[in-house]
Specification:
alpha/beta; Rossmann fold; Dihydrodipicolinate Reductase, domain 2; six-stranded parallel sheet; four-stranded mixed sheet; 38% helix; binds nicotinamide-adenine-dinucleotide
Amino acid sequence: MTDRPNVRPADGRLGVLLPGFGAVASTFVAGVEAARRGLAQPIGSLTQMNTIRLGKRTEGRSPLIRDFVPLAGLDDLVFGAWDPIPDDGYDSAVKAGVLDRHHLDPMEDFLRSVKPMPAVFDTEYVRRLDGPNVKKGASRWDLAEQLRDDIRRFGEENGCDRMVMIWCGSTEVFLRPGPAHETLAAFEAALKADDPSIAPSMIYAYAAIMEGVPYANGAPNLSADFPALEDAARERGVPIGGKDFKTGQTLMKTILAPGLKARMLGIDGWFSTNILGNRDGAVLDDPDSFKTKEESKLGVLEHILQPEMYPELYGKLYHKVRINYYPPRGDNKEGWDNIDITGWMGYGMQIKVDFLCRDSILAAPIVLDLALFLDLAQRAGMSGIQEWLSFYFKSPQTVPGLYPEHDLFIQHRKLKNTLRWIGGEEPITHLGLDYDEGE
Ligand SMILES: NC(=O)c1ccc[n+]([C@@H]2O[C@H](COP(=O)([O-])OP(=O)(O)OC[C@H]3O[C@@H](n4cnc5c(N)ncnc54)[C@H](O)[C@@H]3O)[C@@H](O)[C@H]2O)c1
């Protein structure tokens, strides 16, 4: 194991920059403010509520994570955003319809103070939306320069000691990495040539990394998931992570599938369908945006179940994911899963899950944890892809040559062992043999 890192303290203010100021981002900002005022609990956030066991079970040491490693405090966070739709935090939250007015109205002044900066936005990449709050520029390079100016200005005006950026923007159309994404030089040449293979989210990721700002991608589009930006992040000491917040149906999938596999039960089919009626649902109604999401959702089971190692249990698995836009539901999505499993001697059984879920309520604590953990990682000298944050993502980015780990429980152990390592404690293996020796 490498030596314990020397972690710089979390002094001063942390700017949290949010490209995309819709349902998730406004719910996140409102929830942090509510927690600061003691009006609500930050439920779902490991950085705020979870403890971490240190040493043996007999030692009785289980501090809160935030008391064990130096994290920015909620009072030290300041928020910035970009969105083509010019709604401030209050209007955005009211339109999103996630939080009730009795929560929003007492915080109206604060929420109105967060106004989105003009976005780098192009309807070619998100076809079902448009808005007037958009930057103009001669080329993608020019737009990247404008974003870098925004980041620097935001930091100065708000007295930030450090910043992080979390993409909470819409899912862009499906793109594969090409030659422009191979090296930083090729990427910068493509920015200057205004190459359409560079989507807006990539320009934000580039601007963040070049400004030394850690970046996480909460949507499934490529954004920073290609060699040019991965290498740039690693070389510049910038932690990055992605992709696609693990909420709702995929969270359930990565809870259930590892359990069924642990018992060596077979799975023949997993049919997942969703109805949702928020702005995200409208964007995903475009087949090209849906394809980006579908790829992200489909990979999960294959990696957890390893059909190549267990062909008799999972070799014939039929996995289907559907998302249907259904406006009456708003942000309160309903996700159905039908799982056909097989047991002893091949006898079939069925599991039905009907999750009446609130997507942004599940996503908001992920935004908070990613912001605080990416900032911690940077102060600990960690850079490039942060695999220990896979816990939060539907399609975790990995260093080249490694397959992603999707099993929520393995991801959770990895996250906590990484925190133990950062804090100078031994990892916990759960071997436990030495308890018998009276230690
Ligand atoms: N809600 C969840 O649980 C969840 C889970 C996983 C992933 N996601 C992803 O997170 C993202 C946000 O979800 P949401 O429910 O808040 O959606 P939303 O539609 O309410 O908000 C997205 C916002 O991004 C803005 N936007 C689009 N392109 C932009 C750009 N180039 N620059 C700046 N802003 C831009 C849109 O105008 C919109 O206001 C989506 O991509 C979604 O797929 C959400």
